[in-house]
Amino acid sequence: MSKIQFSAQVRLVSDISRSKQFYEEVLGCEVNDVLAIRDDFALGFKLIQAATITDVNPNPAGKDQQTPWDTYAYVDTHHELDELYEELTSSGAEVVQEPLLMEADWGVWKDFAIKDPDNYVIAFGSGKRN
Fold first, then answer.
1. What domain range is 72 assigned to?
2. How far apart are CA 19 and CA 58, in angstroms?
């Protein structure tokens, strides 16, 4: 079987220049003509100029979900998650969900979320098993 090396989520955006600037300056991605990548494609986006503003459609919230997510990315530890939160907020990220700690049978989960200029929500989380 062939091995997939990485993937990128497609984002239809209202202003390609503004989006490239956000993904580079705020999210810390390497940005070229169409790709915004970070950490060797651990986080990857293909940015495409939308034909019309109505084509830009971030996800709605799911059942029992307060903050809708368009992307969910993982880091190893809560400490790394806290560092990432500080990095992104100091770069000007708009936070839509402050870091939230949740306990479950298997351990403790923590996550937060930011949004891009088109209201796509990018969440980040980390877990710690009991």
1. 9-50+68-129
2. 14
Tens-level pLDDT at each residue, the chain (130 residues): 999 888 899 999 999 999 999 999 999 999 999 899 999 889 999 999 999 999 999 999 999 998 999 999 999 999 999 999 999 999 999 999 999 998 888 789 999 999 999 999 999 999 887 6
Q: Give 102's strand partners.
A: 109
User: CA triplet 54, 98, 69: central angle to 5 degrees?
Assistant: 35
Residue at 59 is within a domain: no
What pairs with residue 53 in β-bridges? none
| pTM confidence score | 0.92
Residue 107 included in any domain: yes
Does 34 reside within a domain? Answer: yes
Residue whose C-alpha is closest to residue 111's, from 77, 63, 87: 77
Residue 58 within a domain: no
Contact present, 67 and 96 (Cβ < 8 Å): yes
Count up the domains in the chain and report the number. 1
Supply 117's token pair: 């200029």
CATH of the domain at 78: 3.10.180.10
